[in-house]
Design goal:
There is one protein chain. Helices cover 28% and strands 27% of the residues. With 329 residues, the protein is an alpha+beta fold. The strands form three sheets. Strands 7, 8, 9, 10, 11, 12, 13 and 14 form an eight-stranded mixed β-sheet that branches. The chain has a four-stranded mixed β-sheet with strand order 3-6-4-5. Helix 1 packs parallel to helix 4. It is globular, with a radius of gyration of 20 Å. The structure holds magnesium ion. Magnesium ion binds next to helix 3.
């Protein structure tokens, strides 16, 4: 490792611990052989990991490094939110092409700026990771692997498998906004070059993990099952149906559309990172949870021979809803 990489890591170490010292969950962080984490009595540990790969999940020419760092952590935190846990610590291993660690405002330093800003927002310490040069010359690509460790009350994790026949289906926030913004980005990348500040107006660049909602669903025992919408409603709802052994009906008219989003974007667009959850039909589900609007969009039903696993009800007509995956670049 060169002097520049060491300087970056020293800086990250100094900034990474701010949240941890308040919370006290991190006994030992960056600087020792392994992190030592404390959790509370009666909790279970949850762990999630996700790759963010250049030209698969982001483009260096399209996405500011701050946005790449933000989204890398947001994807991990969204999984923690979906399972109803509180985040305890994050770890990121980053491989970057030669030259991206040069200077105080290097790509790498700015990647960590974006990641640490979101970490601070949720009081999650960055407790470790690695930094290396990716192999290859001009073809070398950046790759980041995020690991987030969380904790949830024993036996209370929100699983994909808990939905029952008759349950109502809900989603947080809006759907399709990230897909709509990606479409605009594809048309004119130059327009978005200066998108480096976190604002809700940029759902593709800066998705917000719904941690507060996930925690409230667990504490108030509202949800029977949950998943985060990372690959698109149709794909993630299919996972929920599959794991719960149910079928689902979605009402097109009830879908909360994000800014600029079409119905297709809301059904199949990825990267929204909202929570999709089910609740008993008789449960009182607030219109807003932890400050995030919640919309009922459909229902879960017992499987029936000859009926599709997912259906879309639109203008009084029922058609099969097929999972159409989120297309990366
Ligand atoms: Mg997920």
């Amino acid at each position: 490792m060169g002097e520049r990489e060491r300087a970056i890591l020293r800086d990250i170490r100094a900034r990474a611990l701010r949240g941890a010292e308040r919370e006290g969950a991190l006994r030992v962080g960056i600087g020792d052989d392994a992190a030592v984490l404390a959790v509370r009595r009666g909790e279970e540990i949850v762990v999630t990991t996700d790759f963010s790969l250049e030209d698969v999940h982001f483009r260096r020419g399209w996405h500011a490094p701050e946005a790449v760092g933000h989204k890398c952590l947001a994807r991990g935190l969204s999984d923690i939110a979906a399972i109803g846990a509180r985040p305890v610590a994050a770890f990121v291993s980053l491989a970057v092409p030669r030259g991206l660690t040069q200077g105080r405002h290097s790509w790498t330093a700015r990647f960590y700026d974006g990641l640490l800003a979101l970490a601070e927002r949720w009081d999650v310490p960055l407790a470790g990771g690695d930094l290396a040069q990716s192999p290859g010359g001009a073809d070398a690509r950046a790759a980041a692997d995020i690991v987030v460790v969380g904790a949830v009350e024993r036996g209370r994790a929100l699983l994909r498998s808990g939905a029952k026949a008759g349950d109502a289906l809900y989603v947080t926030g809006t759907l399709g906004g990230a897909a709509a913004e990606l479409r605009a980005l594809t048309r004119s990348p130059a327009r978005f070059r200066s998108v480096i500040l976190v604002t809700p107006e940029h759902p593709h660049f800066f998705p917000q993990p719904r941690i507060g909602v996930g925690r409230a669903l667990v504490r108030r025992k509202i949800a029977t099952a949950a998943i985060d919408v990372s690959d698109g409603l149709s794909v993630d709802l299919e996972h929920l149906c599959e794991e719960s052994g149910m079928r689902a009906e979605v009402d097109a008219a009830l879908l909360p559309l994000g800014s600029g989003a079409t119905l297709e974007d809301a059904l199949h667009g990825g990267d929204d990172y909202e929570l999709l959850f089910t609740a008993d039909a008789g449960a009182r589900v607030p219109r807003s949870i932890a400050g995030i609007p919640v919309h009922r969009i459909g229902r879960m039903l017992r499987r029936q021979a000859g009926r599709p696993q997912m259906a879309l009800v639109k203008d009084g007509r029922r058609t099969e809803l097929k999972p159409e995956g989120w297309q990366h670049f």
